[in-house]
Specification:
- By secondary structure, the chain is an all-alpha fold.
- It has three domains: 1-31; 78-195; 210-286.
- 78% of the residues lie in helices and 0% in strands.
- The protein has helices spanning 2-16, 23-55, 67-95, 102-125, 130-168, 172-190, 197-227, 231-245, 252-274.
- Helix 2 (23-55) crosses helix 4 (102-125).
- The protein is elongated and about 90 Å long.
- It starts with a helix and ends in a 19-residue tail after the last helix.
């Protein structure tokens, strides 16, 4: 209704303004509104789907019911519960197919989370019999395993894609920004499963990559300054590189080798300064490890 009203409203305004083709912009605006409304409805319905299946027919009326009614309710509960589990399993199987994307695994993990939240509420409410409680807990056990599998698969896959993308970027800022997004994926999974060694190893590897990018950035700037004869500026930039090289996430052997090399370069530049070959001073605004341009 909103899209139709918008169409005729815009059409009337443009006709009044003398537009030769008033239906074109009016139709375009109405289409955009319709697409947005359908997309929003799909997202809302999808997130509420599991809750509806589980809660519709699960909660019992506190008044006494006949035996036939109880049997009917149990049958309805069993059907709804089985339907929710089947839907999760179906989406899980689709995510496991070759060519699937990490986002598909994330969708399954989110659906599992919604199922677990809904069943937790039903169990806490106490509005279920012993048979229902057994069925709910059995379903939760299966869904928890699926949740863990798909969330970890998403975190690993998405972080690998983003890390590869970061390696292909040309600018230092883009490399760091993309690698940081990969770290965010791992951190979100580690908050739920902090004991996963694979995630921790991936996180350390990405942190080392970010540190190496920053070190390489400052070494390159130092080399440029030294080439121009700006030895004091080059020394300060080498020291900026040392700052990132000595972070905890850098492996000890890499840190030792890199530190030795940079310190030798600094000593050579100091020797040139003492011999009077330094030609310029470093400006204050060029200093500091926060400069990442």
């Amino acid at each position: 209704m909103i899209a139709v009203g918008l169409f005729f409203g815009l059409w009337w305004i443009m006709v009044s303004g003398g537009d030769e083709a008033p239906w074109l912009p009016a139709g375009l605006a109405a289409s955009v509104v319709l697409v947005v409304a359908v997309s929003a409805r799909e997202v809302v319905m999808r997130r509420a789907w599991t809750r509806y299946l589980l809660e519709n027919g699960i909660r019992e009326n506190p008044r006494s019911r006949s035996r036939s009614g109880s049997r009917s309710q149990k049958k309805g509960f069993s059907s709804l519960h089985s339907a929710a589990l089947r839907a999760i399993q179906k989406q899980s199987s689709a995510a496991e197919r070759p060519g699937s994307t990490p986002e598909m695994h994330l969708d399954v993990a989110q659906l599992c989370h919604e199922y677990l939240s809904s069943t937790d509420e039903v169990i806490r409410s106490g509005s279920h019999g012993s048979e229902k409680g057994i069925a709910l807990r059995a379903g939760q056990e299966r869904v928890r395993a699926l949740h863990k599998h798909h969330l970890l698969t998403w975190a690993k896959g998405q972080s690998q894609l983003l890390t590869y993308e970061a390696q292909q970027r040309a600018r230092t800022f883009d490399k760091i920004e993309t690698a940081t997004r990969a770290l965010d994926c791992l951190h979100s999974a580690l908050r739920i499963y902090p004991d996963e060694a694979d995630l921790t190893e991936s996180r350390v590897a990405i942190e080392e990559f970010i540190a190496s990018v920053k070190v390489a950035h400052w070494v390159e700037l130092a080399e440029r300054s030294a080439f121009k004869g700006q030895y004091r500026r080059a020394i300060d930039r080498y020291r900026d590189a040392l700052f990132y090289l000595n972070q905890d996430m850098v492996k000890e052997d890499v840190r030792i080798a890199g530190t030795d090399k940079i310190e030798r370069e600094i000593e050579q530049l100091k020797a040139r300064l003492r011999s009077g070959n330094g030609t310029s001073q470093r400006k204050p605004e060029d200093s500091g490890p926060n400069r990442e341009q």
